[in-house]
Amino acid sequence: MTLTTTPFGMRATAAEVLRGVDLRGRRMIVTGGSSGLGVETVRALAGAGAEVTIATRNPAAADALLKELPGTRAVALDLADLASVRAFCEGWSGPLDALVANAGVMMLPTRQVSAEGWEAQLATNYLGHFALAAGLRDPLRQAERPRVVAVSSGAQLRAGFDFDDPQFERRPYDPFLAYAQSKTALVLFAVGIGRRWAEDGIEANSCAPGWIHTNLTRHLDTATMQALGAMDADGALLTPDYYKTPAQGAATTVLLAASPLLDGVSGRYFEDNQEAEVVDGGPDPMAGVARWSVDPAAADRLWDLSLSVAR
Q: Is 179 among the residues known to form the active site?
């Protein structure tokens, strides 16, 4: 399989990726669009002319962004609550050109569960987005070239999806493994859409934004941040060379959401604005997409499991 390449490197910003792209008349949803990478994603899409809906647990948090970007709106959505997801879908009308599954939580220190009994990182990062896309399938297929973007992470290299104990009911809860599993699930989600919704003309891809200083890392302890070279001995944040700015981190997301360079591409995983090579997952690889994250059989199995919960 030939990998998809683009002229953009890891330092390209979201605005640069969409320079010259006209999104007027296009309607898009960005979950978690009121903070971090979501803000830069919304800025770039709206800056290219798209009508962007920010889906967020606290719509008031988007007030400053709404003032900055007239025509953008914020609507309440709690991805960990499937009743909230259903209400959001019922409130949507008309075509949807792109759904950007950006919101997420990372390394919750203790095991928490959703109302449906799903471990909280898996519920928020993956299941809520699965239910959201399923509930918006009709609006997506009404659009001319609809896309779904699953914002994953390089953490998918570290853990496959554990179908025997996905909720950490029998094995000890591990914050990082739970996060990694949820990000693997998002890659499998894009693979599943590519396999099941192609007849609707819906394309889906996943991506890793890279390392960026955002509120997502608030649960990382000092030792971990220092090991990453992202914090000094006094607790002050540092920015290693491999870190990106939020605007750079959002570049691959908007590439997948709106660039014509990705027309006809679906079920793939991207990092640094390029399609990633498939590699064996484990403790060593620092780039690429794990074989378990793009396994069609695992994608089908996860889809059926999710559908049984998210109906």
A: yes
